[in-house]
Amino acid sequence: MKTEQLVTSLVADRARSTAPLGRSVSLAVATGALVSLLIFAIEFGPRVDLAEAFATWRFDLKLVLVLAALMAASGACVAMARPVATGRWRWGVLSVAAIAAAALGAELVVLPARTWQASLVGSNALMCLIAIPLLALAPLAALLLVLRRTAPASPALAGAAAGALAAAAAAAIYAFHCFDDSPLFVLTWYPLAAIPVIVSGALFGHRLLRW
Amino acid sequence: MSEPEDLSALMRAARKGDDEAYRRLLLLVASWLRAVASRGLAAAGRPNADCEDIVQETLLAMHLKRDTWDETQPLQPWLRAIARHKLVDHLRRRGFTDHVDIDDHTDTLAAPVAGEEGSALDARQMLASLPERQRRIVEGISMEGQSARDVGARMGMSEGAVRVTLHRALRSLADAYRKGRT
Lengths: 211, 182
Prior knowledge:
The structure holds two protein chains of two kinds.
Chain A: H1 3-12, H2 21-44, H3 50-53, H4 57-80, H5 89-110, H6 116-121, H7 125-147, H8 155-174, H9 183-208
Chain B: H1 7-15, H2 19-43, H3 51-64, H4 75-93, H5 121-129, H6 132-143, H7 148-155, H8 159-178
Helix pairs in contact in B: 1-2, 2-3, 2-4, 3-4, 3-8, 6-8, 7-8
């Protein structure tokens, strides 16, 4: 087949974009999160004092943190799916780090030092370590499927970013169940729970996202 | 080549449905790729016979992954990254692991050297390996120059179904290249 003939077929296949990358990624997260919500509704359910929790700054700050992480990870995931990435996604990660530092600082000022440890250990760290990876499974699978159609400069990094995004989505859901709102707890256990998801994302990415 | 064309603008027009712009873009990119691939092969001490296959594999990748181009960025770096990836990949499949640098050749993107266009040798084999229906559609459109509608009428399929099958065929071709059946 001559190249010019191939070009005819490519043109007939239409250059029109099906969907911008950002939208495909968001759609994948949303689809996966629906499955996770179902698991959440069956296995966990929202905390009983949800209405009161909204009135506390710690719970609201927890939501801000997970949502900021969700947006930052989305930006990173979209950037990593491209053969050449711009560095804009770093700003998102920086914002999360800034919010986290501020939250941590505020908590350490407000809380007496003798209660730090109790806040850090929380009431159910083990549940957090299990729930977040579990709720991240479906979003991660959906993301890897979408990323297979992209052209990541580094398949492993793209997979890791997908893992971070899936973990952030899972954390955003799990946050409504978890009673531990202290930034000390959230900033310790949520990232720890994300690590296995990020590592599996990188491993699967390395295998599945080569192009 | 009198005046370098704005490739990013061509791609933008193509995305809005301008088929002529897309054809012009793909042909420009093909002749640039031909120069890049043949220098890459020479640098690696490989015969030039694979050149057209690399060109076609890269064009397929660019086409199938066109959504990964960020419209706010110029098109060239994106093209270069895909070309580099495919060239390195092709050479690696043949056991060549050294670093291949195509950055020296990138000025040729605006003014491609006139190269003799060969035929991709392996593309024919790969085409033959496609499922019957996919193969007939690619042949009808590519070699006989028929429109999707004509091919559909001849095969008793709707135009939409022809396009869906064509897309599947192009993905199969890209996969076949990637799995190193070249």
